[in-house]
Amino acid sequence: MVWVKNICGRLKSDYRYSATIVYNNYPFPRDPSDKQIKAIEKAAQKVLDARAQFQFSSNEEAAGGASLADLYDPLTMPLALVKAHKELDKAVDLAYRSQPFISEANRMEFLFALYEQYTTDLFTSDKKKTTKKQKAP
Questions:
Q1: Residues 74-115: pLDDT tens digits?
Q2: Where are the alpha helices (DSSP H) in the chain?
């Protein structure tokens, strides 16, 4: 979400994001290990499982379930979901580096540096300079 907060646009206070503007530009770790990938997958599944405990589909609204808007209300977000997201954040952070980020600003600084590293040569071409051959007299 730190990436989303800093990259996407807004309409009023709502985020306006798309795959081409926000998510396709996200600098995912270059070569995560199989262990790191499995840890992220496991943590992501825990988020989905936590949501499923409280969420409803459109025809279950009367049963007392919560919508995603309800689940992610900062004042009422279920502790199980908060915990699951913290575990996912930690797993993703560990795919980038072994030491934790000390702040959101520190994380963004790291992500912007990585993005710059990934895109530095994106629009440069490897045209070889050609020199004119001189004609023999």
A1: 899 999 999 999 999 999 999 999 998 999 999 999 999 999
A2: 2-7, 34-54, 68-71, 79-96, 104-119
